[in-house]
């Protein structure tokens, strides 16, 4: 009993430490200035991430697959599953004129799963949904009264949305499971435009600042079905559905002037007073479908398709207050994402350590949800995404645990506007411990 209490206290401490930290990456990505930020949906878990994000049919007793809540029924009837990971990001941004590199690391997720009854499993976890992290500068030279005036416009943003979920899965038959995730979305996103006049004492620096607070619920549903094909093969089918939701968010905006002396700023006059108001954040309909084929715990191959209705409005600011102005250089469109991957499974009963390891690989392609205006052609260009993934799972000796490692390389965007080459290393620990087995005494 004391052992269980100690484990419970440890988990509560981990949650209290990690909840403010998950999803707070600081990597500079100009794409994150649009909408709700840059999504982290398919890259949070190294196990599924090493197969291109393949997840809709994945069922493991020691891996928590939050992408399809129906998968929780794969947990053993007397085991407690703990899963925690982090990611290391490396990017290179370039267009026809400039090149920029950045790197960062952060916790990616923490999740627990457990049985409640023979037919009911549950999971609780926290992971990032989106991230806002960018800073860009535009320089402008103008002539006034024969004198050259130099000014700068600085666009910057920080923050993001974190997802805290509670999932429940129910075994309908031995082959069919359904599940639901109730997600609590929370976070703050800050965006600002700063106008600087470093060479002029007559011109006042100014800043438009807007803070957006998100506190809302959304729901995801999942289904998994397995069917034996003879003695050696199993067919897996998975489906997911995310409900479209109109969420109310709270904005806080201000416009003020300030003076600079060295690195310090001194506010002067408030042009637009601090004002709080409600805006609308619309989460899109997302539908996922997956198929997989498994051969006797030897290998598995699968394909996922995900359709997202991003053409619907994402963020609509209060029509009476639009302090940052309209941004007409981008637009959203419906997106279609494919993931193709597979796994060579390890033999956990083997006495040879190498044979107990599993290896995975995959690719993904997404017809991007974001289109950006090409100033040279005055045409919108779709920001497509392509990636190659590999990974492995290493069993921990004398423990029912796996260390999952993933690596992915990808490219996003177009060089004529902005192209992002990225690499990510994922690392997680997945462990399954027997907590609910009754002890027998002679």
Flag low-confidence runs.
4-10, 15-25
Largest sheet: 14 strands, antiparallel, barrel
- CATH architectural name: Beta Barrel
Distance between the termini: 19 Å
Helical percentage: under 10%
Radius of gyration: 24 Å
Query: Strand content of the residues, in percent?
Result: over 45%
For the secondary structure, the number of strands is 22
Strand order of the largest sheet: 2-3-4-6-7-8-9-12-13-16-17-20-21-22
Mean pLDDT over all positions: 84
What CATH first level would be assigned? Answer: Mainly Beta
Return the CATH topology: Porin
Question: What spatial form do the alpha-carbon principal axes imply?
Answer: elongated
Number of helical regions: 2
Order of helices and strands, N to C? HEHEEEEEEEEEEEEEEEEEEEEE
Helix-strand category: mainly beta
CATH superfamily annotation: Outer membrane protein transport protein (OMPP1/FadL/TodX)
How many domain modules? 1
Walk me through what this model shows.
This protein has 442 residues and is mainly beta. The chain has a single domain (23-251, 279-433), classed as Beta Barrel (Porin), CATH 2.40.160.60. It is built from two helices and 22 strands. The protein has helices at 2-18, 46-49, and strands at 38-39, 79-94, 99-115, 120-131, 134-144, 147-171, 176-196, 205-229, 233-242, 245-261, 264-283, 286-295, 299-308, 315-316, 330-332, 335-344, 358-367, 370-374, 379-382, 385-395, 401-414, 418-434. The strands form two sheets. Strands 2-3-4-6-7-8-9-12-13-16-17-20-21-22 form a 14-stranded antiparallel β-barrel. Strands 15-18-19 form a three-stranded antiparallel β-sheet, with no helix packed on it. A hairpin with a 2-residue loop joins strand 10 (245-261) and strand 11 (264-283).
């Amino acid at each position: 009993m004391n052992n269980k209490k100690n484990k419970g206290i440890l988990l509560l401490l981990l949650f209290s430490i990690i909840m403010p930290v998950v999803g707070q990456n600081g990597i500079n990505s100009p794409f994150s200035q649009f909408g709700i930020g840059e999504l982290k949906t398919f890259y949070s878990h190294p196990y599924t991430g090493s197969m291109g994000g393949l997840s809709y049919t994945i069922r493991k007793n020691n891996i928590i697959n939050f992408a399809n809540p129906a998968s929780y029924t794969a947990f053993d009837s007397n085991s407690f599953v703990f899963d925690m990971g982090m990611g290391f990001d490396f990017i290179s941004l370039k267009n026809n004129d400039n090149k920029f590199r950045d790197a960062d690391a952060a916790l990616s997720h923490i999740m627990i799963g457990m049985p409640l009854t023979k037919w009911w499993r549950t999971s609780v976890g926290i992971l990032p949904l989106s991230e806002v992290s960018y800073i860009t500068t535009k320089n402008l030279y103008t002539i006034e009264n024969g004198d050259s005036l130099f000014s700068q416009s600085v666009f910057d943003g920080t923050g993001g949305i974190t997802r805290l979920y509670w999932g429940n899965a129910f075994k309908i038959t031995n082959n069919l499971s359904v599940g639901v995730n109730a997600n609590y979305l929370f976070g703050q996103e800050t965006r600002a435009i700063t106008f600087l006049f470093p060479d002029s004492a007559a011109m006042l620096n100014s800043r438009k600042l807007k803070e957006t607070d998100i506190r809302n619920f959304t729901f995801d549903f999942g289904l998994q079905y397995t069917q034996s094909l003879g003695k050696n093969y199993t067919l897996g089918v998975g489906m997911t559905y995310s409900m479209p939701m109109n969420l109310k968010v709270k904005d806080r905006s201000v416009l003020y002037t300030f003076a600079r002396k060295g690195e310090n700023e001194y506010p002067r006059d408030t042009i637009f007073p601090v004002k709080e108001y409600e805006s609308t954040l619309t989460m899109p309909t997302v539908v996922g479908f997956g198929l997989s084929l498994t051969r006797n715990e030897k290998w598995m191959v699968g394909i996922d398709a995900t359709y997202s209705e991003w053409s619907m409005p994402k963020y609509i600011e209060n029509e009476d207050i639009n302090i940052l102005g309209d941004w007409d250089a981008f637009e959203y469109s419906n997106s279609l994402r494919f993931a193709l991957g597979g796994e060579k499974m390890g033999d956990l009963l083997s006495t040879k350590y190498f044979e107990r390891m599993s290896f995975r690989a995959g690719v993904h392609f997404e017809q991007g949800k974001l289109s950006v205006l090409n100033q040279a052609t005055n045409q919108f260009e779709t920001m497509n995404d392509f990636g190659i993934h590999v990974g492995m799972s290493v069993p921990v000796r004398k423990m029912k645990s796996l260390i999952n490692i993933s690596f992915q390389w990808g490219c996003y965007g177009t060089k004529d506007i902005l192209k992002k080459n990225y690499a990510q290393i994922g690392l997680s620990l997945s462990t399954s411990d027997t907590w609910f087995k009754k002890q027998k005494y002679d």
